[in-house]
Amino acid sequence: xxxxxxxxxxxxxxxxxxxxxxxxxxxxxxxxxxxxxxxxxxxxxxxxxxxxxxxxxxxxxxxxxxxxxxxxxxxxxxxxxxxxxxxxxxxxxxxxxxxxxxxxxxxxxxxxxxxxxxxxxxxxxxxxxxxxxxxxxxxxxxxxxxxxxxxxxxxxxxxxxxxxxxxxxxxxxxxxxxxxxxxxxxxxxxxxxxxxxxxxxxxxxxxxxxxxxxxxxxxxxxxxxxxxxxxxxxxxxxxxxxxxxxxxxxxxxxxxxxxxxxxxxxxxxxxxxxxxxxxxxxxxxxxxxxxxxxxxxxxxxxxxxxxxxxxxxxxxxxxxxxxxxxxxxxxxx
Length: 333
Hints:
This protein has 333 residues and is of the alpha/beta class. The protein is built from twelve helices and 15 strands. The radius of gyration is 20 Å and the shape is globular.
């Protein structure tokens, strides 16, 4: 294998300060493995949280970040039957997408729908699958009344709203800045709330005439997530799936609201469980997500592409207020 470039994290901290790059010699794929020549990788909040050290107990330093990206099989190891050189795949199940060559287990590489561009494929996993599973398992199956989506102007927030609209649900959208309201144009909402004007929990109580929401899809955590948890109707569900505030839900919330369900949704847990118990479930879910990306429901706008050598510039761009879309790392050329 030729020498390649990779990003590397040797200490936890702010991503733009601690992520570096280095040359390395990728190993040859062993039995059951493939070498994937990465094309594009996505910068996601889950990457930044891991780099910060929030999951230090289960993250071994040094490590190569990146949970989402698309590449082409460059070489297959012994005993690999279902993949071939030149096949475009999503290498899932582990970090390491922010490098030019990722050597990984073939069983974790999933062929990409041929209709997807590389940009679409590089953003077709984490947000689309998270949104699809949360809506399916925590909104549609129980049958929801009032649904609240916070961080609604974010890529996944708008994705969730579009999926809910497809199901005939008009959620309450919560944003933190007035400019976020403009990004909700074209969606069908019961109301849009800006937390710069009033607290999220207060707004939900007013809009539901004191009854509360049946489901909250919370990407923020911290004080805002707790407010919305307290604004649930009895028997309601708070699905906490993100940590945009940088703070977890307060530990006293479950004791305060024993009459509601608090679900900590982690895509990694679902994916690894599905892959171990019924791999076809994961394949089918990805196929459905690919279709939602293609028809625009789960589309992710792209704010820009940066070469891997400029990873710190990419990470600085990712933190810019008002950024519209995902930041991608270009790993070829």
